Amino acid sequence: MKTRIKELRARHELTQEELANKVGVRRETIGFLEKGKYNPSLKLAYKVANTLETTIDELFIFDESDLK
């Protein structure tokens, strides 16, 4: 799964650590999300999207291969 977290985080001038603190996770979790190595819970996806002032659909890019 691809994400736009890094791009939107930069627009809001947030470090991974700052975003992590705002959504209640570790910095490493944000790094894994940005690299597409971690699929977040719906609750975490909502928190990240809300913090970055976007929608889950705009934040996460799903590919058909993600469903297999």
Description:
With 68 residues, the protein is mainly α. It has a single domain, classed as 434 Repressor (Amino-terminal Domain) (Orthogonal Bundle), CATH 1.10.260. It is 54% helix and 6% strand. The chain is built from five helices and two strands, in the order βαααααβ. The chain has helices at 5-11, 16-23, 27-34, 42-51, 56-59; strands at residues 2-3, 60-61. The chain has a two-stranded antiparallel ribbon. The longest helix has 10 residues, at 42-51. It is globular. The N and C termini lie close together (12 Å).
Overall spatial form:
globular
The second-level CATH architecture is Orthogonal Bundle
Spell the H/E element sequence: EHHHHHE
> What fold name goes in the CATH topology slot?
434 Repressor (Amino-terminal Domain)
| Strand arrangement across the biggest beta sheet | 1-2
Per CATH, the class reads Mainly Alpha
**Helix-strand makeup class:** mainly alpha
Strand content: 5-15%
Oligomer: single chain
